């Protein structure tokens, strides 16, 4: 009788042991699958590359080092459409006397002659685009040192809407691939310099050289620009690092002229 009990107990222990092993194996497999999925998901995030902007704008900034005069509202960019230039190029109001520092686009294509604060061009794929602009000051600052820089690219993403008005959501970035195609040319010295160096926005330092006007061009090339490392760019690091993670989302309405006051934000 005892032998029968021992046999029954042994069989029960064996069944429990086998069930335990099977359950453990299933749990391990599930854990491995979850870990694998998480790794693939993380890998996908790591491989994300920000697409090159096709609709965008920037603000140019100039600051007098000694007097602290500063201008922040010169705006340029590219948009898709046939009437971009005429609809979204805004005339300058001019200086109001006294000390001043100003950036304006002089006699841009597609509009009547004059000085403009905002100048948009029609986006055309794989073509060179140029904006001619000048830095102006009054006679009391013609020998001052000035720094010129930008505050990142505002990328425009068109909002899908059934309404007739066209609106965009915008975010500011310094890592967009478009910066690799951009340069500024000092037309007095013929020096060329990038807008971004080593993931930082840079300031270009120059002197007014006894003049009230200094001329520059911002150029977007169809190919990435390779700068000679031996060139002295005369630049200093812009203190406020702008990352595409630091974003301020806005709505950009093309039924009205671009608002200059946005350039005054940080």
Care to describe what's here?
This protein has 266 residues and is α+β, with helices and mostly antiparallel strands. The protein folds into 2 domains: 1-48; 56-264, no CATH class. Helix content is 18%, strand content 36%. The chain has 2 helices and 16 strands. The protein has helices at 2-46, 84-87, and strands at 56-64, 70-79, 90-91, 101-106, 115-122, 129-137, 145-150, 153-158, 167-173, 182-186, 192-193, 196-197, 200-207, 213-220, 235-237, 250-253. The protein has a 16-stranded mixed sheet that branches. The longest helix is centred in the N-terminal third of the chain and has 45 residues, at 2-46.
Put the structure in a nutshell.
This protein has 2 helices and 16 strands.
- Could you tell me the radius of gyration in angstroms? 30 Å
Number of domains: 2
Helix content: 10-25%
Structural class category:
alpha+beta
Q: Count of DSSP helices?
A: 2
Spatial gap, N to C terminus: 90 Å
């Amino acid at each position: 009788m005892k032998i029968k009990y021992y046999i029954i107990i042994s069989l029960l222990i064996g069944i429990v042991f086998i069930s335990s092993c099977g359950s453990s194996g299933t749990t391990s497999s599930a854990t491995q699958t979850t870990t694998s999925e998480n790794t693939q998901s993380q890998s996908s995030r790591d491989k994300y590359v920000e697409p090159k902007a096709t609709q965008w704008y920037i603000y140019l900034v100039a600051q007098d080092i000694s007097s602290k005069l500063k201008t922040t509202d010169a705006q340029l960019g590219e948009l898709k459409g046939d009437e971009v230039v005429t609809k979204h190029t805004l005339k300058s109001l001019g200086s109001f006397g006294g000390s001043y520092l100003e950036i304006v686009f002089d006699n841009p294509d597609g509009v009547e002659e004059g000085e403009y604060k905002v100048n948009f061009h029609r986006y055309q794929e794989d073509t060179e685009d140029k904006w001619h602009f000048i830095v102006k000051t009054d006679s009391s600052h013609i020998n001052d040192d000035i720094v010129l820089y930008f505050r990142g690219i505002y990328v425009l993403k068109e909002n899908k809407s059934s309404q007739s008005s066209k609106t965009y959501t915008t975010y500011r970035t310094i890592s967009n691939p478009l910066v690799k195609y951009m340069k500024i040319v000092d037309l007095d010295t013929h020096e060329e310099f990038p807008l971004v160096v080593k993931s930082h926005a840079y300031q270009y330092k120059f002197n007014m050289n006894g003049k009230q006007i200094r001329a520059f061009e911002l150029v977007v090339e169809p190919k990435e620009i390779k700068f000679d490392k031996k060139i002295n760019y005369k630049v200093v690091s812009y203190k406020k690092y702008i990352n595409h993670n630091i974003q301020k989302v806005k709505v950009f309405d093309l039924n009205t002229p671009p608002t200059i006051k946005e350039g005054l934000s940080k």
